[in-house]
Description:
The chain is mostly helical. The chain is built from three helices and three strands.
Amino acid sequence: FILAVDDSMESILDWYKEEGMIFKGGSGAGLNLSRIRSSRETVSGGGTASGPVSFMRGADASAGTIKSGGATRRAAKMVVLDVDHPDVEDFIATKVKEEEK
Length: 101
């Protein structure tokens, strides 16, 4: 399944829920996180945004917890980020670190 996520908390939480239900059914999911603002940008409350890498980590933890279709295998997931996104270097470093596990 190909999912979409926008730069809002509502959309991000919808993504988590939708992905969890897909994993529960035994399927995998992929999405592009490029619409989520950079961790270097501010939010309306005055702080800085979490950024796509932070949300990716949360979703990855969920994928590791939800066994695909109730089986023992981890859910399959693919996440991408556009090369011109300000957080792309953090994204690549995180993906490399995950592959080393």
